Amino acid sequence: MRFVSLALLAIAVAGCTGSTPAPEAPSKTPVPEVPNKPDTPAPSAPVQSTFAPAPGWDGPAITASRPDATGPLMISVEAPTAGYAFTLDGVVVKDGAREVQVTLLQPPGDAQVGRVVSELELQIEAAKLAGKEPLAVAVRQMQEGSHYLVAPAWRRAVIAAK
User: Fold this and answer.
1) In whole angstroms, what is the distance from residue 38 CA to residue 128 CA?
2) Range list of β-strands (E), the chain
3) Residues 15-30: tens digit of each pLDDT
4) How many domains, in total, are found in the chain?
5) How many CA atoms lie within 13 A of 73 on its CB side?
6) Cα-based angle 49, 125, 106 (whole degrees, multiple of 5)
7) What pTM, to 2 d.p., does this model score?
8) Does 27 fall in a domain?
């Protein structure tokens, strides 16, 4: 009885301890690979809109990015001090472009603010950007507490690169 099989010994030990024996290792039969269908198109990479500074823009550094044509537009501005606000005024079609109009509102002249460059971000929903025209971001700069007879005009800061 020296040649007792290991499987019988494992069952006997399991019966004595009340536990179940370990399952046997699965067989190593190769699984056939399913080839890719040639008519299945590969997923396309999203089209990213790139923006360039508009000619003549001399205001604070503004950047814009849009990961794809159906996504939101992210606008970022480097404000020279703390206390600035950045708001969306509207989206209009003007001079052959879909112009996103924003206001950069600086703090009052007598305000005590930290002298640190602050980055402000604004996200514009994709639904507001629907159209075939190239995008442009136009900014008007105003100062809180100032009274304007006529609001400053929007000037293009960045435009979609061609």
Assistant:
1) 38
2) 51-53, 62-65, 73-79, 85-94, 97-106, 118-124, 135-143, 155-160
3) 555 555 555 555 555 5
4) 1
5) 28
6) 90
7) 0.67
8) no
